[in-house]
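Recap quiz, item 2
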Amino acid sequence: MTGPFATRETVKQVEEGDVLAPKFDANGLLPAVTTDFDSGELLMHGFMNETALKKTIETGEAHYFSRSQQAIWHKGATSGLMQEIVEMRIDDDQDCVWLRVRIGGNGASCHVGYRSCFYRSLPTGALPETPVELTYEETEKIFDPVDIYGDAPNPTKL
Amino acid sequence: MTGPFATRETVKQVEEGDVLAPKFDANGLLPAVTTDFDSGELLMHGFMNETALKKTIETGEAHYFSRSQQAIWHKGATSGLMQEIVEMRIDDDQDCVWLRVRIGGNGASCHVGYRSCFYRSLPTGALPETPVELTYEETEKIFDPVDIYGDAPNPTKL
């Protein structure tokens, strides 16, 4: 057995072992959760394929797999806001990674212009008859997307 | 239009609007990222279907969709360690939710017995020829899974 990923042999090896044996889903992807190392804030949620995971390990900078573009996505390559990995963790069954990062520049992670992609909250409680209303937890954008991305296609799909 | 979820009509509405218009994937799921409200630690990553999202909103306790059991999973129903939602957020394109929770009892979230599912880290740097070695960031289990789950099937799949 060679290469950076071990073959998954037993549940005990995967959960209680000390070698990396990642599991990619039917589309060859695993979710990646990215938080700000200092504040703990959730910045974004993305996916990695095997190449993105290898590049992230190798470079110490977050690489994802863009499902909308079907390509490796070196986060920050366009905006200059790379995500430097301070610590990287894997979960019990090794099908999800957690990146704890620091971001250069203005510290934004979200293509809409906010610091975090999770800039809106929703209330819990009895389900309303009309759509649940969202509250903005970030009130100001850190950058104007047009300045950074120009007229590049918006990654959000309906 | 009635019910708690709005129809997704435009990118602007989804990204910059103030109504909940979630997007479920081809399998009817969206990822849910769960962190400890006080420490910011990533506890787990799961998935929700429409019912799980509604039940989470309605009860203020995290409900997921178990892919291995193909069923709604009220987290903590077996172990007693429910996840009480302090704040719930949605991301820019509304295909992922962030749960900020407090957990009762011993505070564990992971079926292996650790506090977080992400109890192991991996190093960045040149890719080794042999599998990447993991480091335990939690050194002691909080509970013994056998005490809690008995001989229930392990959710980890190879």
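Chain A has a mean pLDDT of 93.
The helical segments of chain A are 11-16, 50-59, 145-149.
End of item.
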